[in-house]
Amino acid sequence: MDGIKVYINGKEFEGKTGETVLELCRRNGIEIPTLCHDERLKPYSSCFLCVVEIEGMRTLQPSCSTKIRNDLKIVTTNERIKKSRKTALELLLSNHYADCLAPCSLRCPAGVDVQGYIALIEKGLYSEAVGLIKEKNPLPAICGRVCVRPCEVACRRNLVDENGVGIDYLKRYTTDKDFESGNKFMPVTKPDTGKKVCVIGAGPAGLTSAYYLSLEGHHVDIIEANPHGGGMLRYGIPEYRLPNDLIQKEIDSITELGTKIYYGKKFGKDLNYDHVKKNYDAMITTVGCQKGASMRVEDEDAEGVLSGIDYLRTMELTGKKFDFKGKKVATIGGGNTAMDCCRSALRCGASESYIIYRRTENEMPANPIEIHESKLEGVQYMFLTAPLKVNKDANGRLKSLRCIKMELGEPDKSGRRSPVPIKDSEFDIELDYILGAIGQKTDVDFLENINKNTEGEFKLNKYGDIDADPKTLQTGAKNIFAAGDAVTGAATLIEAIAQGRLAAKSCHQYLTGQAVVGECGEFVSKRDNFEEQDKKDYINEYYTQLREEMPVLPPEMRRNFNEVELGYSCDQAHNETARCLECGCEAYFTCDLKKYSTEYEINQKKYGGSFQKFSVDYSHPFIEIDNNKCILCSRCVRVCKEIVGAGALGLVNRGIKTFVAPSLGSSLKDSTCESCGMCIDTCPTGAINENKPFKPGPFVTEKIETVCNYCSIGCGITLHHKGGYFIKAEGRKTPANPDGNICKYAKFGYKYLNDSSRITKPMIKKNGEWKEASYGEAYDLIVQKIKAVKPEENSFMAGGRLTNEELFLTSRLARQAVKTNNLSSFLYHGRECAMKYNWFANVPFEDIDKAGAIYFIGCEIDKDNAVLGFRINSLKQDKNIKLVNIHKADDSSMNRKCDCSAKVDSYYNLVRAMNFIVVKDNLINKLFIDGNTERFEEYKADLLKADLSELVKKSGVTEEKVRKILGHYNEEQNSVIIFNEKNVSSQTIKEIFNLALLTGKLGKTASGVIALKEKNNAQGIFDMGITCCLEDGVQANMKQAWGFEKSECKKSHGDIKNLFIFGEDPVGCSDKAKDVSDMLKGISFKVVSDYFMTETAKLADVILPASFPIETGGSFSNTQKKIAVFETSVTPKSELFKDQLIALLNKLGVAVSYKSNADILADAIKIMGDGICSCDDCKYEFEITQDKCDRSGLKHGGDILIKIADDEFAEKLKK
Amino acid sequence: MEFRTHIMVCAGTACVSCGSFNVKKVLEEEIKKRGLDKEILVVATGCQGFCAQGPIVVVQPDDIFYQLLTPEDVPFLVEEHFLKGRPVKKMMYTPPGEKTEIPTMSEIGFFNKQRLIALRNKGLIDAEQIDDYIGRNGYNALIKVLTEMTQDDVIKSIKDSGLRGRGGGGFPTGLKWEICKNSKGDLKYIICNADEGDPGAYMDRSIIESDPHSVIEGMLIGAIAIGAHEGVVYIRTEYPLAIKRLETAIEQAREYGLLGKDILGKGFDFDLRIKQGAGAFVCGEETALLASIEGKRGMPNKRPPFPAESGLWGKPTNINNVETWANIPWIILNGADRFASIGTEKSKGTKVFSLVGKINNTGLVEVPMGITLKEIIFDIGGGVPNGKKFKAVQMGGPSGGCIPAELGDTIIDYDSVNATGAIMGSGGMVVMDETTCMVDVAKYFLNFTQAESCGKCTFCRIGTKRMLEILQRICEGKGEEEDIEKLQELAAQIKDSSLCGLGQTAPNPVLTTLKYFRHEYEAHIRDKKCPAKSCKTLLTFEINDKCIGCGACARVCPTKAITGEKKKKHLIDQAKCIKCGACFDICKFSSIDKN
């Protein structure tokens, strides 16, 4: 009885019988969090996230396993429920020793996704890598040269071989590559909002905020006092480290989005706040720290003493270098500006360049590489030395500097030991120049200018920097934001970038009327929350691989301002990417645990205590298990048992020590695992992942919804890619596969899409050598060859992986243009007429659940068509359907999943023996036979001529067993036989149909036969007429539309002069490769269309590049004749094959034009569909058969794709 | 053959482990040697219950009770008692603190306050002889049911008796049967839950060891009432003696036509098999038990559906525990009214408890409902040994709670016990004296439950572990002020969000000790002191002026922390002391202070 009345949160809902509270809520869009629920599985209730309150029940109830009943009153969220969910998550995370994000990204002030872009660089996706970096940092080329690299300090590679990954070098590498490509990354901006923002200063913070505001669709003007942009990048960093043209390139990338920079205008002087207020909606001040700090020594006003920052800026502003030729120059300080000064001094000709620093090298804040390079260049260091007084000559010019020696005392606030002067250790050093590089100060001289006009107050903080809310960077004046050094005091480039982005974000919130909250934090699980990371855990897990050294100018070639670092080579960059340990979680973007933890504002440390630590299990070639991330929802264990039926995973131990492990074995590889990857798909966290042969990222991917091109079930799948590089496949719910399950072919067999050895241009063999050719050349040669022979001397072979559209165009090409009826596929060669109607009595997959018994004949369904196998297995668990496995294999893996099995020698003789007994013992369904069939008597007479004992003997089992199998089959109301065309002969198939007819098990909902095929569009071969045996109606249509007169099928290969093979590899896939290859060699002209240089293609004269289905779009017909249409999803790497066929048709004088795939399919249906008689009132015919084996001699469905996958599985899964 | 005297040698697990089979062997030899073997029969019985005094021998019909026997005692005993007719006083029982021996069993306090229904045959029959059981009206209830009663009559009788599930839940047994009987299904199952797992509890094991047929007969009656034809006894592998006796009993019952096809020619079929569990505590939980029988990992599922609707292999299934089944034949034979006349308004009949801990008369007792805790502990249990003060009693095992001495007048009755925060449970009763630290007790039970959690539910798996860690912290003096609140918060949530009884009750020991002994928690946390002087890390051992310098303490100290000259006061080096307490135990002069 349907219509259960339930109250959820006070509102009435109607539920269905058997429905759970969770299902009802989901159906009505009421959100309830859950981790352990998978709608394909029986309710389990372990995570306790989905709890709800039910009136009358003392405790909270897990909604996933609570069935609804009349008048149930449910509350899905309140404080008690939220608290319980929050605690559940906090408990789970207290035993979740795992990192969501790598420490490099976490340490980066801007939060750049380092692991993600390294993975993209590895794949050669430079533009994508730049795009990913620019989500957080719009100045990667600059940053890639001068960043202080906190990421590299945090890098866990340091724990393995003492030197972090060269992250910054890689960033430089990819941005340089992107610039070189001539098609640099350009972000997509949102539509114009009409809002205008004025940014003060074109330094890194200002440029960054302009970039992100532009992305949001706001208009930005930058007011810059200097003649060029870049701020300190240009005026503070010398060119040998950061070339000006590079700065300009990155500025251009920002202004190209619409930002205008007004140079030479100083805010507060050339332009007032009045103007800004009148013309703009908001302002961001990023004025930086422009003033050099005083050294606070006596007489520092002497001529020849200047601040380092002034020294560098002066050279940049004037374009003239100081002339230090033969001079002694000392730089005071130990930071990066000091490095820039002392190294520049040498470049200006100084004979001596000193660093005077009051601590030791260990305490120097400068980048160690800089120190190293400066020493190479000849800078001399005076450590533990502090300046006391400048000694002037009579002209007030610097003569020497009085210094004092220091020693290290107690650590100060910064943790560094503070220097203490050593008494009576003063000494003088003669100098010509002193460059003071001990810090910078913010120079804000426009305060009053602003405050005259604002409602709030624009203030400075106690350090003299702009006072802004650290979370939002909003100043006291609500419409004014501030960022960069002017807020933080002199800091690093990457901090300025982080600030610029944050200010832009807050400003955007302000402009769009949202609450100004800045960045919303996300939950991040960290191993460091559990314990400090220890070397020993890493040394044992990873191999040592030393860092690639940056090529640099030799020191003797550095007496100029040319860039010193030369950038990684391609090999170096790729070697360096391999050093990344991929600390961040692959499931970062998909993890439900993380999603809910963010939503419920989880504190991972709240329930800190002991935790379980595991090594990741990589022993399976495709599946990796990381129990650190497991939350014990058991979805993997249950999917493996309840759906797949493999039971390869189980739970070990009790209590907090419980973990997931392969059943009865140390490695999943040695278990009953079928490598389908269903466990990966169901895992709500990152505990089970695909063991990928490339860096998994993760990064946000684009999705393509398409149809699998392996077997004939016709499952919908979703492919994930970034920039055309495919990284993942997932099951997708479609009518053929309503649960969205997936098998190993689809799950792991997508990698050929990334294969760079693919053929993308036509090739012509000249003198035994392949030459790339134009399409025109290839077409001309083909047309010439066709015209040179008689029409029937041309033969066309097309495989079951082609789309219906490609197959139909092939039929048109052969019949209408070439006028030959020699069409076939190697898959069905010589038996196509017998196999043609195998779809005819198919039980629809969705009706299998009504079957009482299912018989597999020659059908290793768990291997070849696993998704249908999963459906049957889960039905067996639910409805107790009886499964019988009839097989020839010595050790059929299906035996495990079936109730009984029989190993036979001959399917044909077994079925024929069954039929004999049915007829002889009068077990026939006479009513059915009389009403629905023809030729029974004829068949009977032929059958009874046989000798039962002979049949039984040949079948390989006893008569008793034959009778037992038959008994089960006949007694069951609804029996289904499933066979795979690859393992049974056409004669056996006919006898199987005869058996079904004799017993009346055909044509009813769940009684019938299911024929499984090897290729996704094997059915399309028949549907599109790739066979010489055509129905009369079809032939009539062809005659009318194409003027095609049927001729006989060619029997002998000797008559063929031109052979066209589209999408098949008969040589590579054949049992008898030599015979096939000899046969091909006997044909004078061969054209092959394929993705790769197959064994067959090697023998061709012309190769045409084939199209991936995701490139060409179109349709496939599954084994049940259900047409699945899919779209063109990626830019093709070659001319589409269907267009090649159309071009050939046109060249041969048949004018063809189709607007779309749908047009082609409609035409195909008109020609092919109309001709087939619809058998509503036809009768089934008994067929007389002979004991003759005509199985296809091809493995892998004759297709290179299945071959590639099968070879990989065979090699990697070898036990 | 008629014997003038039966010597009933207790062969319960406790007595067996004390050597009762040896005593029996020597008894038989000695009796044969004296030519008495035609007159005197030596019988191995099930557990007598008075385990503290084992090996136990009772001479019938005189009811003379001998205790703590050794094989060496036997020749004298045979000579004196059986040849000369002079019962041996020195082998009789003397209550603690008294001087005179009590010769007969029925005069001993431990026995005379008990009321035996489930244990009605204890000590009176040989558990391995079906005839002994039949001789004491065994299987008469089955005959009555098969000949005189309808299914509804049986169910009504059980309902009228007021019997409630003795496994701990206390669900009315008759009602449970009725629901299962009314469930639709061609196949139904009966299950006996003998997965007794509470630490220190052995009621069920003892019943099976001493009287297996009472369980089989109970299950037969249940099967008839419900309409089941197959039964399973789920028993843990750690109970080899019980398993052996049950196997023997099942075989004998089959031989007698009491199990199998067409029982007693009445056309009723029923058979029984034993499923041995691997000893996971959680398998005492009905749904986990079912999963385990089905060969799956023992993990509970959400109820409903209850086993009565969808149990073993998805069929209606009735599960009762051993003691419940053992009560059934008695009720049928003696009438529901008689059963209902015992006990309180809502708790009828008797309850078996295993009495352990700081108590003189450790053992198994069956008492009428309505008796007070004090009566059990003092009158039957003989009070707390060594003159220590009775502090609390822990009832219901790891799912239960501690009832403080002040509530000693609480009566045994489901609701009264529940009102204290403890539960009746399956009958574990652990008595504690003043030296027991209540935080430590809570820690002990929680340690058990967290280790036995099947690992399925988040709260039970991780939450109990976190609570345990807090308790460990507190016991080590590292507790923080907010720990008590954290414990209470976690406890409430674990109870609220766990699938099965294990998780739902795991925090009970913590909650009840917090309720009655909060000051002890506070002392650990605030003063870093253990009031019971039990938590070692919080103790200091110091030598006082009573020390005579005998050197005994220095000799036992494993870390050589004690030094001192002979005949002079010794000193403990606190830095070296590991607080093992060996010095305290060995000192004869009370010169070591434990603080």
Your description of this structure?
The complex is a heterodimer of chains A (1215) and B (595). Chain A has 1215 residues and is α/β, with parallel strands linked by helices. In chain A, the strands form twelve sheets. Chain A has a seven-stranded mixed β-sheet with strand order 30-29-41-40-39-31-32, with helices on one face. In chain A, strand 1 and strand 2 form a beta hairpin. In chain A, helix 4 crosses helix 21 and helix 5 crosses helix 9. The longest helix of chain A has 19 residues. The radius of gyration of chain A is 38 Å and the shape is elongated. The model of chain A has no long low-confidence stretch (mean pLDDT 93). Chain B is an alpha/beta fold and 595 residues long. In chain B, 39% of the residues lie in helices and 15% in strands. Chain B contains 23 helices and 18 strands. In chain B, strands 7-8-6-5-9 form a five-stranded mixed β-sheet, sandwiched between helices. In chain B, strand 10 and strand 11 form a beta hairpin. The longest helix of chain B has 20 residues. The model of chain B has no long low-confidence stretch (mean pLDDT 93). Chains A and B meet through helix 2 of A and helix 17, helix 18 and helix 19 of B.
